[in-house]
Amino acid sequence: MKSQGQHWCSSSDKNCKVSFREKLLIIDSNLGVQDVENLKFLCIGLVPNKKLEKSSSASDVFEHLLAEDLLSEDDPFFLAELLYIIRQKKLLQHLNYTKEEVERLLPTRQRVSLFRPP
User: Fold this and answer.
1) At 25, which CATH number?
2) Which ranges does the record mark as transmembrane (predicted)?
């Protein structure tokens, strides 16, 4: 569910021609091994551990997020939150978010717990 004022695709948006899956691949290609490990860590408790353990790329993690309904084309905020947390703020543009928008939305839309399960 998009927030008011959040548009997935505008006529002036160059990314508009790129499909959601392609955007996920672009994000994946810009993340390193440590970023993937950080994503997996942040998803503990939200995605089954066995699935996370088998994930070797960000694309694998994204597939699990899609399967768990934590990520969708209509509502990519959870991924934006994850990218923000792992300090990959430059990649937010691929989801049509800015750092400021994520910061503004976090108080009401945050899904990543500040406390990690043991």
Assistant:
1) 1.10.533.10
2) none
